[in-house]
Specification:
- The protein is globular.
- The chain has a single domain (2-259), classed as Amino acid/polyamine transporter I (Up-down Bundle), CATH 1.20.1740.10.
- It has helices spanning 2-20, 30-44, 48-78, 105-109, 111-117, 123-126, 134-163, 175-182, 188-220, 238-257, 262-291, 293-298, 308-324, 328-358; strands at 82-83, 86-87.
- Helix 2 (30-44) packs antiparallel against helix 10 (238-257), helix 9 (188-220) packs across helix 10 (238-257) and helix 11 (262-291) packs antiparallel against helix 13 (308-324).
- The protein starts with a helix and ends with a helix.
- It is mostly helical.
- Strands 1-2 form a two-stranded antiparallel ribbon.
- The chain has 14 helices and 2 strands; from the N terminus they run αααββααααααααααα.
């Protein structure tokens, strides 16, 4: 799980470096990536409240931007605005060849990036152990997730495609930029680029924070070097922060060596790892229901269509992994990640032998 979040942070620090190129086009992307990582590293060495403050503003910027996109897009639709490619209308969603004009292949291959976009969603369940009233709060949080997905993901995409049909969207520029430009906002490109930059920095910041705490917890349990358990006077696990930052720094090195393909490679690795984590959660859920039927019966918030839904979701995960094999860039990640799991197994065996030998 630590590696999942490290790979997520690596992908986002890589993306952040690319976004900086909008303002400084001649700079090598690894240079701004390194600068951003150093800034986030310094902030994570400060008190935890600094992390919370940064995340508050990062999140606020993203929410305001998406709501602005949806609100502005609805306004253009209702007034019948004319863009350079035709009228703005909801009919653009289905009037240009239907839902799958080029077949199912592109739809299936998009799963890798879509799944990557939802990495970290399991944190809603992990907070149950630190929630004052989990029986009330956790169901509310989980039930709100589909609503937020509909608004912020499906809603935003529906608005974009209603303003610019898929045949008119330019893959070399952000569709968000095109929509804001259509609304008459001259500085649309700079605004959207700043928003996605803060979004990537936010994800990397969260990754660095969470991975350092995971290493700290592993050290406390004896599953990581003891020196990672040390705290600074401000209660920050400095050694754990330094270690996670150094691993994330590998992405900067990769960006220097292979700047073209590093983002897709890292996101594919992250997708594979998170699918593994989610699959383990599903298997654990089935074992729990089987071994403790009396507790499951008392739970008022059960998984619908158990156990059928567990197998359906596991089947979907398998489909996503298979889709990684049909792209040369994602295939590398598909082949590399099992090697990482093999390395983890070796480290675990060495740790077990060390503990047994010590006893």
């Amino acid at each position: 799980y630590w590696f999942c979040w490290v790979s997520l942070a690596m992908a986002d620090v890589t993306a952040a470096g690319v976004y900086i190129q909008y303002w400084i086009p001649n700079v090598e992307p690894w240079i701004p990536s390194l600068c951003i990582l150093l800034i986030l590293f310094a902030s994570n060495l400060m008190a935890v409240k600094i992390f919370g403050e940064l995340e508050f503003w990062f999140a606020l910027i993203k929410v305001i931007a998406i709501l602005g996109l949806i609100g502005g897009g609805l306004y253009l639709i209702f007034i019948g605005y004319q863009t350079d490619v035709g009228p703005v209308s909801f009919s653009n969603l289905w009037s240009h060849g239907g839902w799958f004009p080029n077949g199912w292949e592109g739809f299936v291959l998009s799963f890798q990036m879509v799944v990557f976009a939802f990495t970290g969603i399991e944190l809603v369940g992990l907070t149950a152990g630190e929630t004052e009233n989990p029986k009330k709060v956790i169901p509310q949080a989980i039930n709100n997730i589909p609503i937020r997905i509909i608004i912020f993901y499906v809603g935003a995409l529906a608005i974009i495609m209603s303003i610019y049909p898929w045949t008119a969207v330019n893959a070399d520029s952000s569709p968000f930029v095109q929509v804001f430009k259509a609304a008459g906002i001259v500085a649309a490109a700079a605004i959207v680029n700043f928003i996605v930059l803060t979004s990537a920095a936010s994800a990397c910041n969260s990754g660095l924070f969470s991975t350092s705490r995971m290493v700290y917890t592993l050290a406390r349990e004896g599953n990581a070097p003891r020196r990672m358990f040390r705290l600074r006077s401000n209660q920050v696990p400095m050694n754990a922060v330094v270690f996670s930052a150094l691993v994330i720094f590998i992405a900067v090195i990769m960006q220097y060596i292979m700047p073209e393909n590093v983002f897709i490679l890292i996101t594919s690795v992250s997708t594979f790892c998170f699918i593994f984590i989610w699959a383990i959660i599903l298997v654990c859920h089935m074992k729990y229901r089987k071994q403790h039927p009396e507790l499951a019966k008392q739970n008022p918030f059960k998984m619908p269509l158990y156990p059928l839904m567990n197998y359906v979701i596991l089947g979907f995960y398998f489909l996503v992994l298979v889709s990684l094999a049909f792209n040369n860039e994602t295939l590398i990640a598909l082949l590399f990640t099992p090697v990482w799991f093999g390395m983890l197994w070796c480290f675990y065996k060495l740790q077990t032998l060390k503990q047994n030998y010590g006893n």
